[in-house]
Amino acid sequence: MSTPTRKLAVVNMKGGVGKTTTAIHIAAGLALRGKRVLLIDADPQGNVGHTLQLHARHTFEEWMTGEAPLEAVVIREVRERLDVVVSTPAAFSLERRLAGETQRETILARRLQKELPAGQSYDAVVIDTSPAMNLLTYNALLFAEELVVPVGMDLMAVIGARQTLSGVVQVRELWPDRKLELLAVLPTFVHNTNHATRATLEALERDPEIARHVFRPGIRQCIDLNYATASHQTIWEYAPRSRAADDYTALIDYIDFGHSVAEHTKGDRDAANKRSETPPREENIARSA
User: Are 129 and 43 in contact (CB under 8 A)?
Assistant: First the structure.
């Protein structure tokens, strides 16, 4: 019996929190573990394509409107076992163009169900979303079963996370048959010697709806992530021994093996915080020079 497809969305209504970077690394990380993965960019900014330097004849917008089948929009083997659907600013028009569609919030889910026969299914589908609770984000939420919410180290990102979770509650109320689980609230750009980081982490820990889902230490601040993006590579390709590679590997461990965030003890968190305070490795300093 085949294993059901994992359906993950990376969401936060606040921009600049590392959503695209996280979506790419979740997809690429699972592919490195031997999973067949489809990464869909549902954000009209199209940052997945920019980051991976992809160009497609047909895009997410044409697939959502039915102008092109999934087979035509999927870019195969961007990395081994990793396929990608890219987006472009043309997708900004979807809100208007799909206004008259029946059950328009479930178009993405219905198209995937129809166009991915059982014999051609993926082990995981990962969706990068817009920094807004718009039609495309609702489509992602009504397809996904698991959510990862990246939170940058500023209080506005915490507000964005809370607004995102309010949207999730609304989805659960309007579509009670839909499974939608908050898998992890993921701190990004973490540097524990920084006051903004400490204040943000404290705010997350004080929030009763968020605290039990916080994945620590999160993704520590690492210049190699910037260089990897500029080189159109994942962090494992660009700097496999960097702190960001370690942190994204830990996140993939959690997603892949299902270790509970609640099992992270205070000792584990204190140790993780201590590691995040150490200076970058020599190779990272050399690259940034």
Answer: yes
E strand or H helix that includes residue 140:
helix 135-143
Distance CA 289, CA 286 (A): 5
Return d(Cα 68, Cα 51) in angstroms, integer: 24
| Domains of the chain and any CATH numbers | 6-288 (3.40.50.300)
In the block, tokens 């999927």 appear at 74
Phi, psi of 54 (to 5 degrees): -110, 145
Round to whole Å and give the CA distance between 131 and 168: 14
pLDDT surpasses 80 at 285: no
The whole-model pTM stands at 0.88
C-alpha pair distances (Å), 132 with each of 19, 23, 43, 80, 164: 12, 16, 10, 31, 9
Tell which residue, 49, 50, 69, has the closest CA to residue 58.
Answer: 69
pLDDT tens per residue across span 75-131: 999 999 999 999 999 888 888 888 888 899 999 999 999 988 655 689 999 999 999
Which residue's entry shows tokens 């178009």? Answer: 107
End-to-end Cα spacing for the chain: 53
